[in-house]
Design goal:
The protein has 268 residues and is an alpha/beta fold. Helices cover 39% and strands 21% of the residues. It has nine helices and eight strands. Helix 3 packs across helix 4 and helix 5 crosses helix 6. The N and C termini lie far apart (49 Å).
Length: 268
């Protein structure tokens, strides 16, 4: 009992770094996320949305959010449907796109977002969601996408032929979400593939990828970059030759953050 009392006393004086909010999304779902307000000012602020990797939660990327927040940005980490405290089920970069666009609506409606410009950082699943969202919402003006998939058919074929344990686990998760193979439900794969929607992308997209990525093949990053350049879009490609799925080397990690902040400074 004494320890519990001390814990509550300590919590009373701790800095609150985030607040949990709930907002409506498509399909009648209520989804959630963590809001990180800059320590100075009362808003509105320039805004960045951080889209978490895989099928984790908004809290997984709290350290990333705090790092961005401390640069003066309002940061929002959505829990995609089926994650954290959100309703619904994972859809593998389909309904999740609705959720992050609904987050932009929420932040704007609440008067927290400065103007009509928002940036996004996403990793893996979150990168795919970020690029897809930018093809549908012109308010998204700057995206930093790391280790994403941009061709769902190519992703499926890669993990279907791979013996990597992580690829096998992803395959077992992906098929029930999508509803079958590319031959069985081609439209379900098409709607999850940002390469099909490059014409709609108005954001400047920084594409970051590891050359040795066993899950999301690096050729997808190159194809997205080539397609954007061919269509006159703003894009930059950074390949890390010795990295796999996401950049893990400390020096490389630092470079990713420097590239991301320079990108937001320029386009957000």
């Amino acid at each position: 009992d004494a320890l519990i009392e001390k814990a509550y006393e300590a919590m009373d004086v701790m800095e609150k770094v985030a607040e949990r909010v709930f907002y409506p999304s498509s399909g009648g779902l209520t989804v959630s996320g963590l809001l990180f307000r800059p320590p100075e000012g009362s808003g509105p602020w320039p805004t960045v949305i951080v889209n978490h990797a895989g099928f984790g939660t908004a809290g997984d990327f709290s350290e990333v959010a705090l790092m961005i927040r401390d640069r003066g940005y309002l940061v929002f980490n959505p829990d995609f449907r089926g994650s954290g405290m959100s309703q619904g089920s994972h859809e593998g970069a389909k309904g999740e796109v609705d959720d992050v666009i609904a987050a932009v609506d929420y932040l704007q409606r609440e008067g927290l977002m400065e103007g009509e410009r928002v940036g996004m950082y996403g990793q893996s699943h979150g990168a795919a969601v970020s690029v897809l969202a930018s093809s549908r919402d012109p308010r998204i003006t700057a995206v930093a996408a790391e280790a994403g998939f941009y061709d769902a058919v190519g992703l499926y074929r890669n993990i279907a032929s791979s013996t990597d344990p992580a690829a096998e686990a992803l395959r077992n998760e992906l098929l029930p979400m999508v509803g079958g193979t590319p031959e069985q439900v081609p439209q379900e794969y098409a709607v999850r593939s940002a390469l099909n929607f490059v014409d709609g992308i108005q954001a400047a997209v920084l594409i970051i990828h590891g050359e040795k990525d066993p899950l999301c093949p690096v050729d997808q990053a190159r194809r997205l970059y080539d397609s954007m350049v061919e269509k006159g879009k703003t894009a930059e490609l950074k390949i890390f030759p010795e990295e796999a799925h996401c950049v893990n080397d400390p020096a490389g990690r630092l470079e990713v953050w420097k590239l991301m902040f320079a990108w937001f400074e320029r386009y957000l």
